[in-house]
Write a structure and sequence with these properties.
15 helices; four-stranded antiparallel β-sheet; Rossmann fold; five-stranded parallel β-sheet
């Protein structure tokens, strides 16, 4: 009997399917044939119809939550090619059990967990190529954007990612809210949570604000940027874009240029890239690179942009954060652009396959010139595109883990 829901599926065992899948997996990880159900996954010791996760597409391979997703037929060839190119695993699928209801920073993740998110994001990226760009993975769930800072890309990307997963969405901004009347962050979040919220996506100017909320709320909390601390989904989408473009992460030399002192993106990128085997170089004016950063991060420091351009595979430019008084750390914008900005003449020294990245928004003519931002080396718009898939993966995993914790607590109480 085919289960009607994911909850029903976890209580239903299909012995024939189990036996056939395990026999093939035990013989070296070969993909099953096309007979019977065409899209299946193994969840623990139970076979679950893949339709409950990705809408029965079957066009990609992923390792999702506690599930190993195995493609069939023509999709298997595409999945094998992606696995070989991006993770060098040559068809070997490793089970990863995701148990984290919150994503507060990349520093807290292992290398395997980072790859786990990237692999799942590769599956979700296919959803955006369909005529109907939606899957029922989070149907009936509520996701709230709780933003206390201005945002365009991140807020809209999270909102669209939640909608692609069929979740209901709400957006909160501090201006015009009870925060202006003196309400605290915790009270604001708890009042909104009482409306039946499953996940908060939080951006705040104070480092540690998402961590504080995670201790006071029962729903998932996802960090969308907290002060100068971390921006984990931006780091993940940057790593995803590098892996997709370059075919690997390990062994690459990645330069992060500009305002390191105030950049949460630089920290998230550095944590993630070093855990996956890349070498990271922070480059910028001495006044914009914290003196003690090498005491807690495995990075190189350089103040010579020309040397970095010649020796790196990826150049990730950071915005000068004038709203955080970053302009006070160098004499003038013109001098910064001349000494540390990327331009066409400087990029003539770059390696043939070197790519240019930027988390946005761009201060054109300061961090890099318009010709580079819109040129063939630029993958800036691809970063935005990949951000949607990465955030779909993060929402799916965190909300799914929250449901798992709730189920375990209910069983314990029973």
């Amino acid at each position: 009997m085919k289960p009607e829901s994911l909850a029903d599926a976890t209580r239903t065992v299909w012995p024939e399917r189990m036996k056939g899948w395990k026999a093939r997996a035990g013989a070296g990880g070969e993909h099953p044939g096309t007979a019977g159900c065409r899209r299946e996954e193994e969840r623990g010791s139970v076979i679950v119809c893949r339709a409950h996760m990705l809408g029965c597409s079957g066009q990609s391979s992923s390792i999702c939550g506690r599930a190993i997703v195995v493609p069939f037929g023509r999709a298997a060839k595409k999945a094998d090619a992606r696995l070989n190119a991006t993770n060098n695993c040559r068809g070997r699928l490793q089970e990863v059990i995701w148990t984290k209801p919150h994503l507060l920073g990349i520093q807290d993740l292992s290398g395997e967990e980072i790859l786990h998110i990237l692999d799942l994001a590769a599956s979700f990226k296919e959803v955006s190529t369909r005529s109907v760009k939606k899957v029922p993975a989070l149907r009936g769930r509520v996701v709230v954007n709780l933003f206390f800072e201005a945002s365009t890309r991140t807020s809209n990307s999270f909102a669209l990612a939640a909608k692609r997963l069929s979740a209901d969405t709400m957006s909160f901004t501090s201006s015009g809210s009870s925060v202006s009347k003196g309400e605290t962050l915790i009270d604001t979040a708890r009042n909104i949570e009482a409306m039946g919220v499953d996940a908060f996506v939080v951006r705040h100017s104070a480092a540690g604000a998402p961590h504080l909320l995670s201790k006071h709320l029962k729903c998932s909390v996802i960090n969308a940027g907290d002060g100068c601390h971390e921006h984990p989904t931006q780091g993940l989408l940057d790593i995803f874009t590098i892996r997709e473009t370059m075919g690997r992460i390990e062994g690459l030399r990645v330069a992060i240029l500009g305002d390191i002192r105030h950049s949460r993106v630089a920290r998230s990128n550095a944590w993630g890239l070093t855990k996956l085997g890349a070498r990271v170089v922070f480059c910028g004016p001495p006044s914009l690179i914290p003196r003690d950063i090498r005491e807690y991060m495995d990075v190189e420091i350089s103040h010579d942009v020309d040397e970095v351009v010649e020796t790196c595979d990826v150049l990730n430019c950071l915005r000068i954060q004038f709203e955080r008084k970053a302009g006070n750390y160098f004499p003038s914008v013109r001098e910064y652009a001349a000494i540390f900005g990327l331009n066409g003449e400087r990029m003539k020294r770059a390696r043939p396959g070197c790519i240019i990245m930027h988390p946005g928004p761009i201060n054109r003519g300061i961090e890099l010139t318009p010709e580079l931002a819109d040129g063939p080396r630029s993958v800036i718009l691809r970063q935005v595109e990949n951000g949607l898939a990465v955030r779909m993966a993060v929402l799916y995993l965190c909300v799914g883990a929250l449901r798992g914790h709730a189920g375990a607590e209910n069983r314990d109480e029973g």
